[in-house]
Amino acid sequence: MSEEQPIETDVKQEPVTKDENNVPISRLNEVISERNELRDKMIAIEKQQEDNKRAKLQEEEKWQELNVELVKEVESYKPYKERWESMDLKLRDDALAKLPESKREKFSNVDTETLLNIVSEFAEQKDNPPDRQGTVPTQRLAKVTDMSSEERKRNWSQILESYRR
């Protein structure tokens, strides 16, 4: 027994793979925040350049060019405005449909946000408790064993209610 033989285990080991794309989450967050900051700076610079260009055109009294640029800008916003107005109108119509008919005309002139708040308040109204709650039954039921099957069917809800108490 002077020779030592390695003992082989039946445990399977997965080969260790080095993942080259593994990045710590803190570094990822740093890069994302840096990217967002640069994007914001770029947008601010573009806006500043646009403002400078407008100021320069105003100084040079090139109103025609400035007017053309502003008209183009306004035209580019029109589809968004139309879409927003149609969505707002649909939202208002849906909200007004949820109101009782007596309240629709009263709240039809309110702005959309307030109207939605009013509709949510109407939807949250508490239901009244059932009329039977707290009342004393007027007639006592006979014993279930003494009833015919037809009487049991007719009074089944009262029989179940008596066992729930």
Distance linking N and C termini: 84 Å
Q: Beta-strand percentage?
A: under 5%
Number of strands: 0
Largest sheet: none
Task: Describe the model.
With 165 residues, the protein is mainly alpha-helical. It has a domain at 78-123. The chain contains six helices and no strands. Helix 2 packs parallel to helix 4 (112-123). It is flat and about 105 Å long.
Defining traits:
mainly alpha, 64% helix, flat
Describe how the helices and strands are arranged.
Elements: H1 25-59, H2 63-98, H3 101-107, H4 112-123, H5 149-154, H6 156-164
Helix pairs in contact: 2-4
How do you describe this structure in short?
By secondary structure, this protein is an all-alpha fold. The protein is 64% helix and 0% strand. The relative contact order is 0.03.
